[in-house]
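Hey L., structure's done. Input below.
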Amino acid sequence: MRWTDVTEIAIALEDARPDADNVNLRFTDLHAWVCALPGFADDPHKSNEKILEAIQMAWVEERD
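Output:
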């Protein structure tokens, strides 16, 4: 997975952290969780607030 794989990351996060409060989370935590996902293979420094927000929104939608 890469930072642009927003939906795939959201699904993986829901599988890995089903009890996490994905609405009220810090982007620093989200960044660390994404980087720790099995299969994530992108440069950790290539993320930004816009990407992390997109991942968060996709994760919220995935949970619904």
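The radius of gyration is 10 Å. Helices lie at 6-16, 27-35, 49-63.

-- N.
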